Amino acid sequence: MANQNGEKYGFTGLFPIKDGQTAALRAFLRTLDEKYPRGSPLAEVSVVHMARFVVIDRLAYQGTPAKVDTLKSNYLLFACDFDGFSIDVLIREMVAHIPDQLKTIWQNCRGFPGIESRDGLSRYFEQCQVTTNLLLADQPDATVNDILLGLMYRRGLGEFIRHVQETQPTPAELKEDFAKLWQRLQEVRPHAGDL
To answer: 164: number of CA atoms within 13 Å, CB side?
Structure first.
């Protein structure tokens, strides 16, 4: 399946925006970086690797002899890579963790059924889905948690190496410091946007 690569699902959807709602939607999307300390409400959705919103209000025209193409509607493009094998996983997690933001964004789009029925919302996303022809994933079998843990270990090891270079501990101190580092890394679970 083109939307699937290993453990990851790649969703791309084009959602027609209600007449007169494009400016409000665009203004809300621009606030996401400022409102959320981790850069996006989607950082709270633990299965999301990457997500992008784009408001499409016209098509590029490159001049003659090209033909001017117009849209019947403005569209919200939502592209998202997440851990899972169907849209249901993404919908379940977004409804559970960011229901208000989900509603605020998609209530500007035609046909949005609301968030009360996850099945209805999944069907809506499937109706607006564009088939992905090629989903690239550098680590297709690594979950968001796997990648965050790898980044945290790399950061911790880098800090440890700097510490060793600056303090030049004895072998016993080095062993003790490494044990403390390893213990600390076992107790922490990073969140998206923290690293």
So the answer is: 16
